[in-house]
Amino acid sequence: QVQLVESGGGLVQAGGSLRLSCAGSGRTFSSNAMGWFRQVPGKERAFVAAVSRSGASTDYGDAVKGRFTCSRDNAKNTVYLQMNSLKPEDTAVYYCAARSSLYSGTSRVPTNYNYWGQGTQVTVSS
């Protein structure tokens, strides 16, 4: 069982930056590929970024590529999402998620993740 808690959301002006953190429980955190997703009311949860178990491999959605950076510190059981050059369309609730340790790779599909945090609101004003 993995429990995830996001933090770092807030209100920022367009062009600004935020760093989200996702703290995970459990001694096997490094066994879980991790992902970030976002959701706005009335829309499906959308893929943002993912990082492999070791942190050596990352993947990004087209909307955030070149602006966001996903990383992890397994010693701290924490995954990060550094968000730069924020745009109003980045406004959403951001969720971190963990895949089962049975799967080594990352995924862009929300249903491939087994554990979810409660979400943190990011609001970008124009």
Structural summary, described in words:
The protein has strands at residues 4-7, 10-13, 18-24, 34-39, 46-51, 58-60, 68-73, 78-83, 92-98, 115-116, 120-125. 35% of the residues are buried. The chain has 126 residues and is mostly beta strands. The strands form two sheets. Strands 2, 4, 5, 6, 9, 10 and 11 form a seven-stranded mixed β-sheet that branches. Strands 1-3-8-7 form a four-stranded antiparallel β-sheet, with no helix packed on it. The model has no long low-confidence stretch (mean pLDDT 96). The protein has no helices and eleven strands.
In brief:
This protein has strands at 4-7, 10-13, 18-24, 34-39, 46-51, 58-60, 68-73, 78-83, 92-98, 115-116, 120-125. It has 126 residues and is mainly beta.
- Give a count of the beta strands, DSSP E runs of length 2 or more: 11
Helix content: under 10%
Measured between the Cα atoms of the first and last residue, the distance is: 40 Å
Q: Taking all residues together, what is the mean pLDDT?
A: 96
Radius of gyration from CA coordinates: 13 Å
**Spans with pLDDT under 50 lasting ≥5 residues?**
none
Main sheet overview: 7 strands, mixed
Overall shape: globular
Helix/strand order: EEEEEEEEEEE
Strand percent estimate: over 45%
In DSSP terms, counting alpha (H) and pi (I) runs of 4 or more, how many helices? Answer: 0
The secondary structure category is mainly beta
